[in-house]
Design goal:
Elements: H1 6-13, H2 16-19, H3 38-49, E1 63-65, H4 79-97, E2 101-103, E3 107-108, H5 113-123, E4 125-127, E5 152-154, H6 156-181, E6 191-192, H7 196-211, E7 215-225, E8 230-231, E9 237-253, E10 259-264, E11 273-278, E12 292-294, E13 301-306, E14 318-322, H8 327-335, H9 361-368, H10 375-389, E15 397-406, E16 414-423, H11 430-441, E17 444-446, H12 451-459, E18 465-466, E19 468-469, E20 480-482, E21 525-527, E22 531-532, H13 534-538, H14 541-545, H15 552-558, E23 561-567, H16 571-586, E24 591-597, E25 600-601, H17 618-625, H18 627-635, E26 643-644, H19 647-669, H20 682-703, H21 707-733, H22 739-760, H23 765-772, H24 788-791, H25 801-820, E27 829-836, H26 838-846, H27 848-855, E28 857-864, E29 871-876
Parallel strand pairs: 1-2, 3-6, 4-5, 11-13, 17-24, 23-24, 25-26, 27-28
Antiparallel strand pairs: 7-8, 7-16, 9-10, 9-12, 9-15, 11-14, 12-13, 16-18, 19-22, 20-21, 27-29
This protein binds one RNA strand of 74 nucleotides through helix 1, helix 12, strand 26, helix 19 and helix 21.
Length: 881
RNA sequence: GGGCGUUUAGCUCAGUUGGCUAGAGCAUCUCCCUUACAAGGAGAGGGUCGGGGGUUCGAGCCCCUCAACGCCCA
């Protein structure tokens, strides 16, 4: 046969001959099904019909509630969002079809530092609390300020207005993208973390913590980011390996009997030294305990103490304790009741005022030369001075060591003393810690091993939760302080607002009983200047989404929530802090299940990141493959497992969606059948029983949040159905033989089609809605989840896998024979001789008419042998071409 | 240093309580316009289940051990 171009074949297929097969009698089934434009059509339909609206008349037993993660509105949504939100959506859709009223809100986390930074970069401004408010302020830029632009300082209210303006734009984009992805969110439940209702919930919960003694304020050493100029909580720390150098420094014994050598990586803190510390069991230093030594360069007297945290094998075994170089210094300072000699300011520079105890004139001169230097510059300077004075022993020895950073910061954290607010979290209270551990142990973790992340974190807490931040765009700490007659702040007796007044801003609102004129005056008041950590608000998402106190009738219908979906990277922050708040406020865990999603990895198995330039835009993928196809890729990943980004999988998903269109068109177009016809042919009945098994498995899998298994089992059946079952029965279904046989096939095809469309509906919501509406009324997403009883209703025979296997095996060997002979599958087999087991032979005999139709077999024979295999010899008709 | 996870075909992964010849998709190769679908279909090849040891009639799965990779915590 001469080679024919694909184009020529297409022309032939489009000819009148091909169009003669008329689908016009099937109402709703398009002649040429397509995935084009189905998404906008159904997005609008769902919106207009309230398909996903939460029915708040449902009682808690009939509600499935989801504590949706509110994405941070500081840029764009990426594939990680698409991935994990799809997982949650499939589960939401399943429970909706199971008859639950699904509480599926969305929130935007527009609160906090990421937004501040984005506003600074986008508008070319910076916040300065001393600048006056400018009505109708216009920022110098809206997007992409030039690189040499210097940020324009603006007032806090103006800054916040810009924050709100920018997040509103971003949130619209986010919503559009999530709608496009097909999330079955009830958008009327949308919340943002900066809106009044969230600030009210956040401040109310804080004030209740305060009343119960769970929140407290304290002046204490705190980890501090010198660039952001804010305190940082333990949960926001990360260790980074950084180059450093051990400097060996000589301290001088006060009795003149020689030197004590210490090793330090931070010689610049020498003026802040308050003691030397060695291990109590270290014989080298036992004679020194309780004695006094003098610091080099500054000649300040410091005591030598014993403490078990000193490491015998580290350096010379005796350490310089400064206020403060690291967290161990804080412990020593507290437990040994040492002096305070702070020399690092909140912007990371050496302070003007020399520390206490420094009186030596040469020492003062040395100190003066350090003032204003950054820690790094001071280190260089002090190393030079020590070398000059001969008090540095040898050269500094380079090492690499872990240094604590704020996770969003660029310079190592310092420790400064400041007044901060804390919420108890078990870090300083064993009984509370045990309670929180028990709460975590009581959760259903998906996957289960993630529970260790929680217990690991709680057991490792070394302090309470620091919730105050020295920032602007956040929820203000809702307290004021009275000032005494001298104008001094009375921190121990804060003034609190009544809950009915919330939310408040203590920087602009005056407390009850005071007037604004008394702000900052003796015997007046002053507002707390700080805002709360973003997690202090995010930890209340169940309360915010459920409208706690604002609508308690609603709250009681949804709380505690059924599931918290989230990433495993924020177990220590979001998950744990939510647990803390719920434990205190409601004495219950905020959810029964926690579903942790995995990471998206690029094809090189590295976590996808913007800096590597390998982030793909979700919208582009929706355009290329369709939302269902992108969801297919996401759903294919096992719960909690890191997954490689794969456009190949999206192509497969696209194929599946297209196939569902085509097979639906076929089943609905093969011919009419009365609704009450019950399938009777053995193969039809066996197929329905096989599908019933899939329904059982899919249902159990969804109940366990295992959407991936639902897809796997449904998809496996679906392709078998298309490739084997449909091929076997299509000729019979066209009414080629008997009326009964045709009706049995048509009825079975329709039962199966309805079931498969519903099984796939939570996974591929667009294409299933499209094909469902060709022949059913209402949304597939409000239809009932398939049941085995409906699927097998009226069938007189039971399951028969052996029959299906034998018949499909027989058609399989005939196909293989044709492929090996390199002829078309349509080629006629004049004679086929099978050899197989007795049981398979009887099954093949029973199903022979369908096999003969599908394989175009004219004459056949079968003999039995002691084998489970099916083999066949075929004689092919001469090729008529 | 402690904890958790992973290791199965070229790639991405299933493999449920230990049980027939270890599966799927992708990729590769071959063939096929066929009356739902060529944006399709029918087939084929490809694996020492990370290494070693053990338990068992039987191990990808259970136990011990080693290794590599990843993550969490210190």
């Amino acid at each position: 046969m001469p080679e024919v171009s694909r184009f020529a074949w297409r022309c032939r297929r489009g000819s009148a001959l091909c169009q003669a097969y008329d689908l016009g009698t099937m109402s709703g089934v398009p002649e040429k099904p397509s995935l084009e434009n189905v998404e906008p059509k159904w997005i609008d339909s769902w919106d207009q019909n309230g398909t996903y609206a939460f029915d708040r008349s449902a009682t808690r037993d009939n509600v499935f509630s989801i504590d949706t993660p509110p994405p941070t509105v500081s840029g764009s949504l990426h594939m990680g969002h698409v991935f994990s939100y799809t997982h949650t959506d499939t589960v939401a859709r399943f429970w909706r079809m199971r008859g639950k009223s699904v509480f599926y809100p969305m929130g935007w986390d527009d609160n906090g530092l990421p937004t501040e930074r984005r506003v600074q970069n986008y508008y070319g401004v910076s916040c300065d609390a001393s600048v006056a408010y400018v009505p109708n302020f216009q920022p110098p830029f809206r997007g992409d300020p030039p690189k040499d632009h210097r940020a324009v300082p603006i007032s806090r209210p103006n800054f916040i207005e810009l924050c709100e303006e920018l997040t509103a734009e971003d949130e619209k984009i986010f919503e559009d993208l999530f709608r496009r992805l097909g999330l079955s969110v009830d958008w009327s439940l949308l919340y943002t973390t900066i809106e009044d209702r969230s600030r009210r919930a956040s401040q109310r919960a804080f004030l209740r913590n305060l009343v119960r003694g769970e929140a407290y304020t304290q002046e204490a050493p705190t980890l501090w980011d010198v660039d952001f100029r804010t305190a940082v909580a333990q949960a926001e720390l990360e260790d980074r390996d950084r180059p450093g150098a051990y400097h060996t420094i000589a301290f001088h014994k006060s009795d003149g009997s020689g030197d004590v050598l210490i090793d330090t990586t931070r010689p610049e803190l020498l003026p802040a030294c308050v003691a030397l510390i060695a291990h109590p069991d270290d014989p080298r230093y036992q004679p020194l305990f309780g004695k006094i030594v003098r610091t080099p360069l500054f000649d300040v007297e410091v005591p030598v103490f014993a403490h078990p945290l000193a490491q015998i094998d580290k350096g010379t075994g005796i350490a310089m304790c400064c206020t403060f170089g690291d967290l161990t210094d804080v412990i020593w300072w507290r437990e040994l009741q040492l002096s305070m000699r702070a020399i690092i300011s909140r912007d990371g520079r050496i302070v003007n005022e020399p520390p206490s105890g420094l009186t030596d004139s040469a020492g003062l001169a040395h100190y003066a030369s350090l003032v204003g230097k950054s820690a790094k510059q001071a280190q260089t300077a002090i190393a030079e001075m020590l070398t000059t004075s001969g008090e540095m022993i040898g050269e500094p020895r380079a090492i690499t060591h872990p240094v604590k950073f704020y996770e969003k910061g660029d310079r190592p954290l310092e420790i400064v003393t400041s007044r901060q607010w804390y919420i108890r979290n078990g870090g300083r209270d064993a009984a509370l810690r045990d309670s929180l551990l028990a709460r975590g142990a009581g959760l259903n973790w998906l996957p289960d091993h993630m529970r260790h992340r929680y217990s690991n974190w709680v057991e490792g807490l070394n302090g309470d939760w620091l919730v105050s931040r020295q920032r602007w765009f956040g929820v203000p700490v809702p307290v004021w302080y009275p000032l005494d007659a001298q104008g001094e702040t009375l921190h121990d007796s804060p003034l609190v607002p009544d809950e009915s007044l919330l939310p408040i801003d203590p920087s602009t609102d005056a407390p009850v009983g005071y007037t604004e004129a008394q702000r900052g005056q003796p015997d007046g008041f002053i507002g707390d200047p700080d805002v709360m950590d973003t997690w202090a608000t995010s930890s209340l998402t169940p309360q915010i989404a459920g409208k706690w106190q604002d609508d308690n009738d609603l709250f009681e219908r949804v709380f505690p929530f059924d599931v918290r979906p989230q990433g495993h990277d924020i177990i220590r922050t979001w998950l744990f802090s939510t647990m803390v708040r719920s434990h205190f406020e409601h004495d219950v865990a905020p959810w029964s299940h926690v579903a942790l999603s995995g990471w998206i990895l690029d094809p090189d198995r590295k976590k996808m990141s913007k800096s590597k330039g390998n982030v793909v835009t979700p919208a582009d993928l929706f355009d290329s493959y369709g939302s269902d196809a992108v969801r297919y890729w996401a759903v294919g990943a096992r719960p909690g497992v890191d997954t490689a980004f794969s456009e190949d999988q999206m192509k497969v998903g696209r194929k599946l969606a297209t196939k569902l269109l085509n097979v639906s068109k076929f089943v609905l177009g093969i011919g009419e059948v009365a609704d009450d016809v019950v399938p009777t042919e053995a193969i039809d009945v066996a197929m329905l029983h096989r599908l019933a098994g899939v329904v059982d498995e899919a249902t159990a899998a969804f109940e366990a949040f295992d959407y991936a298994r639902v897809l796997e089992r449904t998809e496996e059946f679906f392709w078998w159905f298309c490739d084997d079952y449909v091929e076997l029965v299509k000729t019979r279904g066209y009414l080629s033989h008997t009326e009964d046989g045709a009706m049995s096939a048509r009825a079975a095809l329709r039962r199966a089609l309805s079931t498969m469309q519903r099984l796939l509906a939570p996974l591929l919501p667009f294409v299933t809605e499209e094909v469902w509406n060709w022949w059913q009324s209402g949304s597939v997403h409000q239809s009932q989840w398939p049941t085995t009883s409906a699927l097998t209703d009226g069938l007189t025979d039971g399951p028969n896998e052996e029959l299906l296997d034998a018949i499909c095996g027989a058609i399989g060997v005939i196909r293989r024979a044709k492929t090996e002979a390199k002829v078309s599958q349509r080629a006629v087999v004049t004679e086929a001789s099978f050899v197989t087991s007795i049981n398979a032979a009887s099954a093949i005999t029973a199903g022979w008419a369908d096999i003969a139709d599908a394989g175009s077999v004219e004459k056949w024979s079968i003999s039995t042998a002691d084998t489970n295999e099916i083999t066949v010899d075929v004689t092919l008709a001469p090729n008529i071409h």
